[in-house]
Amino acid sequence: MSILFISPTIISGDPSIEPYEADILISNGLIKQISKPTSILFNETDKVKIIQAKGWVLSPGFIDLHAHSDLYLLTNPEHEAKISQGCTTEVVGQDGISYSPIHTQQQLKAIRDQIAGWNGNPSPEDHPGLGLFEWKTVGDYLNCLERNKTATNVAYLVPQGNLRLLACGPWDQVATPDEIVRQEAELRKAMNEGAVGMSSGLTYTPGMYASTSELGSLCRVLADEFPGSYYAPHHRSYGFKAIESYAEMLGLGRMTGCPIHLTHATLNFTENKGKAPLLLSMIDSARAAGVDVTLDTYPYLPGCTTLAALLPSWASAGGPSETLRRLEDEMTREKIRRAVEETGCDGGHGIPTNWDEIQIGSTNEPSIRHYSGRRVSEVAKSLNLLPIQVFFEVLVKDRLATSCLMHIGNEENVREIMCHHTHCSGSDAILHGKGTHPRAYGTFPRFLGHYSRDLKLLSLNEMVSHLTSRPAKRLGIYPHRGLIQEGSAADLVLFDPKTIKDKATFDEPKQRAEGIRYVLVNGKIAMEEGVLNGNRGGSVLRRRQDGKVC
């Protein structure tokens, strides 16, 4: 069935094109025709769904360059969080750790345990028929997504932490030349199976143990052998020495020629207040020297990760089982306490943890579920305990599977970075559990409603480009996606510019946004008149041998 939008205001994704009113005909998953209002003719026998859209904005579907939907695309196929806010394309495999590639079930178990705070740890028995966790390679994983059909389009980054785990194991040690060669071979294999680039999580084990030169070897593979691919690092610190950490990543781009995409490019903690202009000048300097640099951010102040990520890296060496073993030893606990609370450690971005800023997120263990949504300091006070005692209790009882929110952002930095000409959208949304971050449901409406309409930080036309054409260009799918033009994929969002608004809050993070009426993915209606219908029109986007992503 074809779909005809009558007289919407088209915001095409190209900010050089002013919004205009037109009719737009969708057929066979593509934008077939764009014409003056009421000028598209069809026979009465034609099966055409007509949508009266005057006064509404029709834009390309929004693109999430930093998604953690790796499992939710399979276990929660309607994908309410993303579809309800107009997201039609996602990039997973983020932060240097995900579920492929792996060689052994032991490796997969360690990864599942390590990032259970991000994605949960669903049992295949509870989701029969999906083939959940039956993969090993990136190709296997992408095939699993394709077989099950996804609500959004999805692309995959090779997690550098996985590469290091396969070659070096989970230990804090210098990679040998042979181990680096093995990582390069694993990267080539994953890229040839359809990945679009590589991610790192340089505050997460085991990827954080990699040296700059080790990362450089992998970036050279991308630059020399896979044109159009990119490196998306979660770098070594967003707190103490954050500027130096950004400089290391930009230096990799200069050294190797690899495109660098600075993911969730924040400058958090008090000591980085007002430093956004310095970071942006560094990016502009690198770009002037020929480095391809882009970045993404989410439109909120707090961050979100696993509670175990606050541990020093030495305490996490060897994987989750070794971490839990260390947490049973009183002397080791005291050593951890000093690193976390007094000196600051790499897990806490080099800054002593302030428990007033750490909010416990989703938990799996029933006995501590009532801690969810509360600050660690508040829980400690209510129990007449020290905050570090609550920290250890939660880690052990929940077996490291707890998420947390870190209330550490700087609004002036968020706004300044958002306005930069390299800026793209990335939610960094953890979807698992009740106590998640509101960005899971509110990222794209917040960009458009709060920052564009209400604060007038950018025009609506410009802000839409940040969510559509810019990330599409980074991903290598533009102009087939991220742009409204004849022949492009019909990934579309119909929204009311006067009322679009994020409704999710830190107390109620799973509230759907207002003001979005229709969402189409490859021409299939996924949300109609604000109601999700369960249609899964997404495609798995693979990098082909010729460098195209489709």
TrEMBL record:
Domain (Amidohydrolase): residue spans on this chain: 50-525
InterPro entries, A to Z: Amidohydro_3, D-aminoacylase_insert_dom_sf, Metal-dep_hydrolase_composite, Metal_Hydrolase, Metallo-dep_Hydrolases_sf
One Pfam entry name: Amidohydro_3
Any GO MF annotation of the entry: hydrolase activity, acting on carbon-nitrogen (but not peptide) bonds, in linear amides
Listed Gene3D superfamilies: D-aminoacylase. Domain 3, Metal-dependent hydrolases, Urease, subunit C, domain 1
PANTHER family: COLLAPSIN RESPONSE MEDIATOR PROTEIN (PTHR11647:SF1), HYDRANTOINASE/DIHYDROPYRIMIDINASE FAMILY MEMBER (PTHR11647)
Family of this protein: Belongs to the metallo-dependent hydrolases superfamily. Hydantoinase/dihydropyrimidinase family.
Protein name: D-aminoacylase
Naturally occurring in which organism (per UniProt): Kwoniella pini CBS 10737
Top-level taxonomy: Eukaryota, Fungi, Dikarya, Basidiomycota, Agaricomycotina
